[in-house]
Amino acid sequence: MSNDRLNVYNNYIQKHSLSGFKSGLKYGTYLYIGATFACLMSPLCFILGANVLANILILPLAILISNPIAWIVMGMIFIAASGVIMSMATPLFHLAKDLINKARVQKKSEEKDIEHEPTLETPERSITPIALDIPKTPDRESGIVIQEVVKDSFVTATNKGNYEYELTTTDIRGIAESKYGWTAHKDRKGLKNISKGVFFACPDDLTCSLEKELKEYKNKVKQGSDNLIFTSILNLNGNHWVTLVVSYDKESKKFRAYYCDSFGKPIPNDISDVLNNTLGIDSSDIGISEAEQQKDGDTWNCGIFALINAKKITDMIKEGKSFGEIGNALSRCKFSLERKRKVFADALKQDKQSRSSTPDDRSRRISGDSLDSGCGLDGEEFCGDWPTLVHQTNRGNYGYWLQQHDISYIARIQYGYLEASENNVFFSITGDVNSLNERLKEYKNKAEQENSKKTFTSVINLGGNHWVTLVVSYNPANKKFVAYYCDSFGTPLPDVIDPSVESSIYTANKITEKQLIPLMNENSKLIRKQESNTDNSKIEEEKQNNEAALRCVRQDKEELVNKQINTAHIVGILQATLGINDNSNIKSSKAKQQNDGWNCGIFALENANIITQMLTEGKSLDDVEKELSEYKLDLDEKRREFTRALMNDEEWRSADENDLLYDRAAPFSKTESVLSLQSVLSYCPIV
Length: 687
What we know:
With 687 residues, the chain is α/β, with parallel strands linked by helices.
């Protein structure tokens, strides 16, 4: 066996032997327990007349009864042997499987890279589907329909919930094109699409093909494309995907490269040799990621990591980031692998649908006619079925109910509202009594201390299914607060509430002031004392007693205010915390703006902005009421406006890319949309 083959097998041993050993131990244990149970049941076989089976089990039963220790030792030996055998067999199995897959994929890739000759349909010869249900895919350049056989594609595997499917070369190339717009193949003239500023390569052969691609990239740079980035995803030994990105530095007139293996391993010599021989890149101009992103035992997600790393590295090099900054970003990069698979599968599906549609279909922008009408607002990368305003609007879903993350980002981007106390506008998004109460206390203290005309603006979730607006303003002249409440259905705050509601909030405030804050301060002092007297048992005992008291006090407070908020709670907080006991200083809008069950979030944001601006300008509560009653809103256009703003915001894009916006255990399905809508309608009856 040659050294190359030995190296390949050694890599498979490193990758699969541990997981094989664990599997062997597991199944060996199952067999041992099963055999023990079967032996104990052998007397039953005699009774039932299964004499042959009973005769087989009688000897093991005799050993088990006469010498149980020997039986246990034999079991341990059997389990260990199972683990060793599986640790040797598993790498061989994966090696054989990958060799077969690689041969199949390579043949398929070669066929795909060859330009298809136009085949005109004639009476003698026509393109006829085979009897099997084989999907037909139009060639990108010619528009000629060719038959494409995908036996166990990435999309199919993902749809079946198989999240351990290993990406093939075809999958990598398809995802890179459909998700990022990077094209690996060439057109009829032998040219590669570099319109995205990226020369993308996913070569079949690590050295020869990579060298050829790098030479072509070098020629492109020499011809004037010096801003062009070379982005490649390489397959090491046929079983592991890694990322290599190359750029040209105009100042030093040198090429630089960044390499990333999701296991944090260094760049292989054969790749660095190709970089040096082709582009003159030495080790000092090669950045290498040390981030160990992929877990031990995970042998199937390297392709996912390679694609995501390729996009991140490429974008950061375009922005002029240093190797150190890129490395730090990769080490901090966290995301849901299952969600990324679903996103990539959805991109492939959308791309296939767009290629099979007519030119009119492809150029059609979003409309409310169908949730599957395509992707609009030039947001092709945000067409997945995920619970964000951007994704749903791009899919044409104008019945999407805004989530908290949507409201938070829109408030910051469109109006400059931040959930921080440094600005003149205190902004808050809340749905429980305690959060609104604590934020209003913080606002009250700040406004009174600075004696300034600060505004408190809040978007509140009533009952978990309806967004409303509350804005509070402070008048330094008379030292009083005024509040304006707006429900887009025109439902006002109650004039009279149960006295127990205000009493509960008042009591919670007293618990915080008289007990919770002193106990927290005392706990901080004890922690500092303990740090300088680590062996002092008395301090430790005092600290434990204080923490126990603190838990009790917090529990007492939570019983009073840890509740989903309703309109009575809002009035109770305004009375107990801000001291607004005069109903003339609490105004509710009676303007009925909303006629559906899903646009309350849009209205709540716009109303918050209008009310805040008018109260800041010193307008009266009656002036605000008049403005809201006359305000007309194009809801679909407002959704598109918010969507464009979010798509253009780097912070939002980064949060979406790194799965920080929402619970991504499952995509936002149409069934869930209907159920959510029914829940909203139950709270907000349409008349």
